[in-house]
């Protein structure tokens, strides 16, 4: 439950929290007392530290649902992107492609249990991972406005395993854990290593991708280790496009400057994508252990934007929908330049246009871009982190003290664009500025076992966390944001497609918070486990919160146990969501409009209903069972998550001409050049429920060893309340039905002495498909269910050398095509909002050498 600083959860709640605990951290210190041999085995034992601060336990003994994905399981995928690897392994975990989506093209948003990416807390080695600087302005409905961590920078080669807690855990781990927690555990071997080279491309012959990665474990004297992992990737762009009808018509009329296709829908080109992770540890003595880990990563991407039609693109070529050409006058008197009709097959051939060009006082942007233009969006992501700490024993207490920092910077640019307000003097390439997210975290936690009366081995953990995060907008070059001399003649201000950040937008905002928390678990009987967690947090910007979690497990028989949990939670609005500024091009009813994204307290946003953001609140319930018999393992879990005051990006709100004077009086410059505004708001109350089924079975078959694995998820979201003034019905429907309600993955792994095979079937149910961010009837429909098949075969040529070949979507299952009336209208063939890759089948080969 969330209250302000003056609430009943003020001094009294702090006292209550302190009475339960002094401090706590993400992972129990008792995790470090685990059996040394278990800790050093890679992916043999399904042991997890998330979900509980008691000693690590097997996933079958956990009172909350946890998935363990080993490094070997991650490798059985043609993609080397961490997101793609996890989508095929975790029920209710989804992601989608982002072909034309501003900065979200650089950092793909994900969702767990039907909630946005910033509702899942990401850990590395049990420590909180910083979020990405990129905010998903066009996040496919669920992720609209989300700002989650960038897990794609984490390479599979660096990981021992991934632990996925599918349960609300804000009371244990703090903000962002409403949907669950993912813990990426780095390799800690002090010897050996591997080198892997993989290459593949799509059946269509494009998107060629090359990945080289390696890992090496080194001793740090006899008492420590340094484990280093590195990965380098490149990928060509893809195109699943057709020529736009409007561009084709102008080309047929004689305009030779039209590209074919004029607009590309496809994956961006990825260059110089590298990442290095280092994990290290050192035993000072039997009771004290030092550790440190971190990463340095970088990648560059280039993707396409929407095509600008040279007859009718608003505030560039026309201001009346393409009836006449927008003509500027050097002397400021546009009436002297005459009228140039634009509703003709080819404006360049008209005598009015040729007369205008001959007049040195008159100009149009056709003189620079006669065939229109399609801006290219470029971006560079730079990511780093470093954590260090000490853990050990003090008498009967285990402790872990750590500090770390992480940053993610996204630098943006545009190629092949214009600043129309500068007239013919405009550059065509721009540095539009940057976003940078920086987070610093300090943790100290303690844990021990205590005995109270007849209850023995009660796990008690307590601790303290301090965090500071900042979001900074870096200014772009002057030409990318300046209002040139022709702005008052109707020409758009700033680099078109992605306006640069000016001095009024640039700046740094930050906040800090403290967390005080405790965790208690005890077996009340030999078969009944009960746990309680309590967490108090206080934020410098909006107030404090007190949340709790209850967990229980009952072992009915040797094979069957039942488990349940109940928790409250919260998610604080990010500093970026509170302060971000951007300009994007959106599709509404099939038309392109320029939308200004403003902070909710900006005069423009405030005029149309923007207010100061408040934290989300959540209440979660979950129940399920675990069944284990011989080689069969089965878990079934139901969950129900109610979120109130859910933070999301509003729909595009039209800036009306009747409001221009009032907006100017409020301090908004050139409101007539802004088609619509959108901002972040606590606009929704939602209820998300679902069922996750995870099963595995091992047996001897076909003279070898076989393992069958099933991951099935049913997810249903209903919007209980929303504000129709800031949110349209299409956006609501996308929240409710934008991802398949049913999704399943069935995997058959078969191995012999030197040969192994993996076959995976992926089922996706029906979903509400939208064309880009257009939720109107023009751009949306219900998409059909589909099944894709993946296959990989590996052969050990030598003891240490393995060759693998395979294909994702081996039968080239086609993605949902756009419906009649929409197909090809903007150059697109498929709904890119689908749950699987619309680029089609992808084949690959891989060589792995271990030493």
UniProtKB/TrEMBL annotation:
List localization entries: Cell outer membrane
Indicate where this protein is primarily found.
Answer: membrane
Q: Domain (TonB-dependent receptor-like beta-barrel): give its ranges.
A: 373-810
Topology relative to the lipid bilayer, per the entry, is: Multi-pass membrane protein
Entries under PROSITE patterns matching the protein: TONB_DEPENDENT_REC_3 (PS52016)
What span is annotated as the signal peptide, if there is one?
A: 1-33
Q: Where is the TonB-dependent receptor plug domain?
A: 61-181
UniProt GO cellular component terms: cell outer membrane
Query: What's the superkingdom here?
Result: Bacteria
Query: Which family does the record claim for this protein?
Result: Belongs to the TonB-dependent receptor family.
Name of this protein:
TonB-dependent receptor
Name the species this protein comes from.
Answer: Shewanella frigidimarina (strain NCIMB 400)
Q: What is the lineage of its organism?
A: Bacteria, Pseudomonadati, Pseudomonadota, Gammaproteobacteria, Alteromonadales
């Amino acid at each position: 439950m969330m209250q302000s600083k003056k609430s009943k959860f003020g001094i009294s709640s702090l006292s209550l929290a302190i009475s339960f605990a002094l401090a706590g951290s993400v992972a129990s210190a008792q995790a470090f007392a685990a059996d040394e041999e278990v800790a050093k085995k890679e992916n043999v034992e399904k042991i997890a530290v998330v979900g509980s601060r008691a000693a690590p336990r097997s996933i079958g003994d956990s009172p909350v649902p946890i998935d363990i994905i080993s490094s070997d399981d991650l490798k059985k995928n043609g993609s080397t992107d961490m997101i793609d690897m996890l989508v095929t392994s975790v029920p209710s975990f989804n992601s989608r492609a982002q072909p034309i989506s501003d900065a979200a093209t650089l950092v793909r948003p994900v969702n767990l249990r039907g909630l946005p990416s910033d509702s899942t807390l990401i850990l590395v080695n049990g420590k909180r991972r910083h979020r990405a600087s990129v905010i998903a302005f066009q996040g496919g409905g669920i992720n609209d406005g989300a700002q989650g961590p960038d897990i794609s920078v984490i390479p599979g080669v660096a990981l021992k395993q991934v632990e996925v807690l599918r349960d609300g855990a804000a009371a244990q781990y703090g903000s962002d854990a409403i949907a669950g927690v993912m813990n990426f555990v780095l390799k800690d071997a002090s010897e050996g290593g591997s080198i892997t080279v993989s290459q593949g491309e799509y059946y269509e012959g494009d998107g060629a991708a090359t990945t080289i990665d390696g890992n090496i474990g080194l001793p740090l004297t006899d008492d420590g280790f340094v484990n280093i992992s590195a990965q380098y990737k490149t990928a060509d762009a893809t195109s699943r496009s057709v020529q736009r009808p409007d561009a084709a018509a102008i080309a047929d009329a004689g305009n030779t400057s039209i590209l074919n296709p004029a607009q590309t829908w496809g994956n961006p080109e990825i260059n110089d994508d590298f990442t290095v992770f280092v994990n290290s540890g050192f035993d000072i003595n039997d009771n004290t252990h030092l550790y440190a880990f971190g990463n340095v990563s970088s990648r560059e991407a280039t993707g396409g934007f929407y095509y600008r039609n040279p007859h009718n693109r608003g505030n560039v070529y026309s201001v009346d929908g393409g009836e006449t050409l927008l003509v500027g006058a050097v002397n400021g008197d546009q009436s002297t330049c005459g009228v140039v009709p634009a509703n003709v097959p080819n404006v360049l051939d008209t005598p009015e246009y040729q007369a205008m060009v001959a007049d040195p006082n008159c100009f149009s942007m056709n003189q620079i871009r006669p065939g229109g233009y399609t801006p290219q969006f470029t971006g560079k992501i730079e990511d780093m982190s470093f954590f260090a700490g000490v853990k050990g024993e003090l008498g009967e207490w285990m402790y872990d003290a750590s500090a770390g920092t992480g940053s993610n910077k996204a630098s943006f640019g545009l190629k092949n664009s214009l600043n129309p307000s500068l007239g013919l003097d405009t550059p065509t390439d721009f540095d539009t500025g940057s976003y940078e997210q920086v987070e610093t975290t300090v943790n100290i936690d303690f844990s021990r076992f205590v005995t109270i009366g007849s209850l023995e081995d009660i796990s008690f953990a307590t601790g303290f966390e301090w965090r500071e995060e900042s979001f900074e907008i870096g200014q772009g070059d002057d030409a990318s944001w300046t209002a040139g001399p022709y702005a008052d003649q109707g020409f758009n201000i700033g680099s078109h497609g992605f306006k640069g950040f000016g001095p009024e937008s640039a700046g740094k905002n930050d906040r800090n918070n403290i967390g005080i928390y405790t965790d208690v678990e005890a077996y009340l009987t030999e078969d009944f486990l009960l746990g309680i967690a309590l967490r108090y947090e206080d934020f410098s910007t909006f107030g404090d919160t007190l949340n709790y979690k209850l967990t229980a497990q009952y072992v009915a028989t040797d094979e069957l146990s039942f488990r349940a949990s109940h928790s409250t939670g919260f998610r604080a609005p990010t500093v970026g969501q509170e302060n971000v500024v951007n300009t994007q091009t959106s599709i509404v009813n099939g038309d392109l409009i320029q939308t200004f994204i403003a902070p909710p307290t900006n005069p423009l946003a405030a005029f149309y209903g923007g207010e100061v953001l408040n934290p989300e609140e959540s209440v979660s319930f979950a129940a399920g069972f675990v069944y284990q018999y011989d080689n069969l393992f089965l878990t079934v879990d139901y969950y129900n998550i109610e979120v109130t005051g859910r933070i999301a990006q509003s729909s595009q709100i039209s800036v009306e001409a009747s409001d221009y004077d009032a907006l100017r009086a409020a301090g908004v410059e050139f409101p007539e050049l802004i088609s619509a505004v959108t901002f972040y708001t606590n606009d929704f109350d939602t209820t998300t429920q679902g069922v996750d089924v995870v099963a595995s079975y091992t047996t001897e078959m076909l003279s070898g060893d076989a393992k069958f694995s099933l991951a099935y998820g049913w997810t249903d979201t209903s919007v209980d309340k929303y504000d129709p003034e800031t949110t349209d019905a299409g956006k609501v429907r996308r929240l409710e039905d934008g991802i398949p309600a049913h999704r399943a993955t069935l995997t058959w792994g078969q191995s012999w002495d030197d040969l192994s095979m993996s076959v995976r079937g992926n089922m996706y149910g029906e979903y509400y498909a939208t064309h880009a961010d257009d939720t109107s009837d023009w751009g949306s429909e219900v998409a059909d269910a589909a099944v894709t098949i993946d296959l990989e075969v590996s052969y050990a040529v030598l003891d240490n050398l393995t060759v693998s070949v395979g294909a994702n979507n081996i039968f080239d299952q086609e993605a949902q095509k756009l419906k009649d009336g929409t197909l090809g209208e903007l150059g697109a063939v498929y709904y890119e909002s689908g749950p699987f890759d619309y680029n089609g089948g992808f084949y690959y080969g891989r060589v792995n050498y271990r030493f």
